[in-house]
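Example 3.2
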Amino acid sequence: QVQLVESGGGLVQAGGSLRLSCAASGIIYTINTMGWYRQAPGKQREWVAIITSGGSSNYADSVKGRFTISRDNNKNMVFLQMNSLKPEDAAVYYCHANLRRNAFTSQAYWGQGTQVTVSS
């Protein structure tokens, strides 16, 4: 099986920073894209950022210029550096990976989520 495990969430004051990490483990042939989503109470899960295996990244407009996504392909990890946090960034953050367990099929996997709380 494949597991994605997030870490790094917590409580931070507005204007502060947090760095989220996500590690993929299990039988993995290759990881295509890795990314982050978030879900605030009463809202739908929304996409935050994505990064390809080659390092190309893209961001939601709401976090562009404040968040930076990166990955370590050797360790099957993805990171999200979050700066200048705002109360509206508070949510459960989920790691997402589109990966192949063999040469033929790809599948999406999700982590269990890590809570980010931003106090005003």
